[in-house]
Amino acid sequence: xxxxxxxxxxxxxxxxxxxxxxxxxxxxxxxxxxxxxxxxxxxxxxxxxxxxxxxxxxxxxxxxxxxxxxxxxxxxxxxxxxxxxxxxxxxxxxxxxxxxxxxxxxxxxxxxxxxxxxxxxxxxxxxxxxxxxxxxxxxxxxxxxxxxxxxxxxxxxxxxxxxxxxxxxxxxxxxxxxxxxxxxxxxxxxxxxxxxxxxxxxxxxxxxxxxxxxxxxxxxxxxxxxxxxxxxxxxxxxxxxxxxxxxxxxxxxxxxxxxxxxxxxxxxxxxxxxxxxxxxxxxxxxxxxxxxxxxxxxxxxxxxxxxxxxxxxx
Length: 314
Prior knowledge:
Blueprint: H1 2-7, H2 11-28, H3 34-49, H4 57-79, H5 87-95, H6 100-128, H7 145-168, H8 172-188, H9 208-219, H10 229-235, H11 247-257, H12 261-270, H13 281-307
Helix pairs in contact: 2-6, 3-4, 3-6, 4-6, 4-7, 4-8, 4-9, 6-7, 7-9, 7-13, 9-13
């Protein structure tokens, strides 16, 4: 009996052992490849939507949505296969004394490191490509800290959701099949980019993109930015003639000659502000809490599922 007890290490020791295993896999089994992939995706997003991010309302909403999607993508790819690819090993070691909480704790620490590195890479890429980023601190009194924490929480929440999927998937193929469906759900139910029926609005609370998009717009002071879509759409009609005259073109000429363009853009913005994107620390705190709550839900569900892995006949 004494020998048997010595064979079973404590939860903390088991977590350290598995954490070391994960870091060895990072170095020697090419798990590090998720980092350069993060840089490539961030660069593509910067090229596509980075020029007007945190400069105009429209550019900010589109850019923040794109960054949220990058975080979701990174999180999903980090852990969608990590458990299902070694399911047989986990089952065998659990029967030999493995604590599931230690096993998942190691994954949580390791995935947190990956997510943090990915966020740093994203910010460095954005700055290298001269993308405007939030400069005014709101919650944390350091430049870019609110922005970085938000990106991390989105990525980590998606990471833990993928870890949950990996916990109950039969094979890596099954996990990869589920992932695109979850990604589409995250995109469609972001809450601020696509128009959804009133009945579907409550489902947006279940997505990391909704809370990530809201927090990113809030820390960037969305409601203080100009709105350019009305000006640009009207500009397309400047050659429209009414009784031989071009009133729209004349209005544009008048506004520009009197340096009233910026005033017009700001007036347009004032009539299209969104209270949920106010520069308010309570909004950011609320978004962070929602992301943390869903992260905890996914982790607890993963623990429950894996605790019954011995009964799995697959």
